[in-house]
Amino acid sequence: MDIFLSALANIIDPATLLFMVIGVGAGLLAGSIPGFTIAMAVVLTLPFTFSMPPAQGLATMISVLVGGLSGGLMSGILTGIPGTPSSVATTFDGFPMARKGEAGLALGIGVWSSFCGGIISAALLVLFAPQLAAVGLEFQPWDFFMLVMFALTVTASLAGEHLVKGLIAGAAGLLIRTVGEDDAVGVGRFDFGSDYLLTGFDFIAVLIGLFAFSQLLSDLRDPVNARKALSDQRRVEVRIEHRRAIKILMQNWFDVVRSALIGMFTGTLPGAGGSIANILSYDQAKKAAKDDSQFGKGDPRGIIAPEASNNAVEGGALTPLMALGIPGDITAAIMLGALLMHDIVPGPTFISDEPVLAYSIYIAFFLASFIMLGMQSIVLRVFVLVTRIKAYVLATVILTFATIGVFALHNSVEDIWTLFFFGLLGFTMRQYGFPLAPMILGVVLGDIAELNLARALAINSDPMLFITRPWSLFFAIIALFSTVFPLFQKQRGSGSMLERLYSPLLLLVLSVPLFMMGGVFRTSLAVLAILGSGYILMRHRAKPTPSEE
User: Fold this and answer.
1) How would residue 18 be classed by pLDDT, with cut points 50, 70 and 90?
2) Spatial separation of the C-alpha atoms in residues 252 and 497, rounded to whole Å
């Protein structure tokens, strides 16, 4: 109880509350501007939090995050242009509803769905993070190294047809983190005699350059679009209809819960994020509906599902971050960077070592959802004004603040050059189809991977331990199958051998490390995996192939 009260005192401090309100407002506005992603908003906030206490800084960043997740619906519903990738599916029914004269109702459904998804996600974060941390105490250096490899391969696999490019980007991120002095032995690498490179690239400058600056360059590439504003409408009058929205949500409460759980699960997968969760939840809501004829024409369920899901994602992403030190998405990776800057290392012992900070994160997540609910109407009016600003003006302002923030970290001109270099690198990678998410995760997790690799080899030089230890083998199997997943997804419905064998073979192979772990629960899971594998094989044998049909 004392820990909870101490954490509550950190968050309800007037200064912290003020920063949270500003953060939610900034996040709502940033999320509503197409091209200005949530991750960009959070990474630009990071430099301004270094002078704050850890709890206050993290609460501010969480507020920006929660606001950004909810902000995308405003642009998607009112203009048909999603503010963020996590709000793409919201436009399918939100914009048609607005065109029918029910913009206020559509916004109300979106706001309350976002709120409910965030609250459910926060509750599950509190429930599951300590349990996952208890499992994480079993991990040794070999297991942590394979966990990082799993995170990178899963993120790369989400690139679909560009799997090889995703793996190259992840490897490049790891390579970037090798510049500078080796923490294990104290030897300089790739410094070329430069004192700046000997200390390594500044983490924040790299992140802002790769993600924010490269995005701005991509947005301004077309001079015609750069001179355009988001909206030419001079006057937009919209009032959010809260009462009708709440009534509709109560009628569709199962859709809310199901979508929040989908978002939570998706968030735990490294690199998946809201862009996948919102599409997946929309698809499931449409499939589960008895009558789906109104989907795409202004069905409220088409707004409920993606908005409840994308706000639940971050609870899922923060769960492995707090429990294992592995971020679930880019924004969680930025949170990890913030913790590391404050000399706090998340991992299995984080919740027990830093209980006040852990509970501060829980409370901030809950409170930010309530602040978001209250500020949505205020920010809506500001959004209408922002839509009239030219794109190049917005980009100039954002880049200016980013440069000031990076310079203020160490008063170093070299950090600004780092920002521009990685901005150009990120822009070039975007043009040639290289995904940035694996590279950013590689930069964030590079130190963890290298340190645990050095520890593992120092304890025992036998490389076979990376695949003979239960948890290492578990993550190695998932990493291997994740690289094949894009090919499996491409062949779904074809009746090919890969489609028939992928799922049962995955379950069968995963049963091996589960048996190795021992214990009644995990042995039972292994038996269920084998039975599930057999059941899927029998179903495939009973189902004729397209050629037989």
Assistant:
1) very high
2) 40
| Domain-embedded: residue 279 | yes
Domain assignment of residue 480, given as a range: 461-542
The 3-state DSSP class for residue 477 equals helix
Residue 331, CA distances (Å) to 36, 153, 216, 328, 338 in order: 14, 18, 18, 8, 11
Which residue, 355, 320, 358, is CA-closest to 59?
358
The C-alpha atoms of residue 436 and residue 418 are separated, in whole angstroms, by 17
Number of domains, the chain: 2
Q: List helix spans (H) across 289-436.
A: 301-324, 330-341, 350-353, 355-386, 391-410, 413-431
Distance CA 533, CA 505 (A): 7
Question: Which of 377, 243, 365 shows the shortest CA–CA distance to 315?
Answer: 365
Q: What is the spatial distance between Cα 57 and Cα 138, in angstroms, rounded to a whole number? A: 31
Residue at 549 is within a domain? no
Same domain, 362 and 492: no
pTM of the predicted model, to two decimals? Answer: 0.68
500 and 433 in one domain?
A: no
- Kindly state whether residues 272 and 260 are assigned to the same domain: yes
**One domain, residues 376 and 523:** no
pLDDT tens per residue across span 447-478: 778 888 888 888 888 888 888 888 889 888 88
One domain for residues 11 and 52: yes
* CA triple 441-264-466, angle to 5 deg: 45
Q: How far apart are CA 453 and CA 148, in angstroms?
A: 11
**Any idea what DSSP says for residue 87?**
G
Say which residues have a Cβ less than 8 Å from residue 374's Cβ, sequence separation at least 6.
none
Question: Average pLDDT over the chain, rounded to whole?
Answer: 79
CA dihedral angle for residue 388, residue 61, residue 46, residue 433, rounded to 10 degrees: -70
Tell me if 548 is assigned to some domain.
no
Model confidence at 503: pLDDT above 70? yes
Strands (E) located in 492-546: none
* 29 and 14 both lie in a single domain: yes
What's the CA gap between 301 and 279, in Å, rounded?
13
193 and 87: one domain? yes
Select from 457, 478, 501 the last residue of a domain.
457
Residue recorded with tokens 């995170």: 151
Q: Are 168 and 301 in contact (CB under 8 A)?
A: no
| 480's tokens | 């291997």
Domain closes at, from 457, 486, 517: 457
Angle, in degrees to the nearest 10, between helices 103-136 and 253-268:
50
Within a domain: 208? yes
Question: 268 with 203, same domain?
Answer: yes
Structure token digits, residue 57: 């800084």
